[in-house]
Design a protein that fits this description.
It is a single chain. The protein is globular. A 6-stranded mixed beta sheet has the order 1-2-3-4-5-6, covered by helices on one side. The chain has 3 helices and 6 strands, in the order E-E-E-H-E-H-E-H-E. By secondary structure, it is of the alpha/beta class. Helix 2 links the parallel strand 4 and strand 5. Helix 1 runs parallel beside helix 2.
């Protein structure tokens, strides 16, 4: 599958999904005017990629500093896809949750993700 790169804008995150080595990264801020339309093709490509794997490890680097409720729902859909893959292939999905030391909101959401998606290995990383 072809890698997916979408540069960040003022209201959308940088998407750098290197499907070729199973490293997925999102960074920046996410509050697009039409979040569903922006993220739909990304979700489809992620789903297709995960279906093509057979137990290969996947690493997701999540480094967003702000996102709205619509984006949060879409991220949960992404995490659900990853969780289902990890359920079928234990210890194959690592979620690196980058957060600012003083941003309790992002950290707490990460902790919620960790509790909700138990098949994903979760790694909280404090940004320097």
């Amino acid at each position: 599958m072809t890698d997916l790169y979408i540069p960040a804008t003022s209201d959308t995150p940088e998407i750098n999904f290197k499907f070729s080595n199973n490293t997925l990264s999102m960074s920046g801020e996410a509050y697009p005017e039409n979040g569903v339309e922006f993220f739909r093709p990304i979700l489809r490509q992620l789903q297709s990629h995960l279906k093509s794997l057979n137990g290969d490890p996947v690493e997701f680097n999540f480094q967003l500093t702000y996102f709205n409720s619509v984006s949060t729902k879409i991220f949960y859909s992404m995490f659900e896809l990853l969780n289902e893959y990890a359920k079928n292939h234990p210890n194959c999905v690592l979620l690196n949750w980058h957060h600012d030391e003083e941003d309790d909101t992002i950290l707490e959401l990460g902790q919620d993700v960790q509790e909700d998606f138990t098949w994903i290995d979760f790694n909280a990383i404090v940004l320097a």
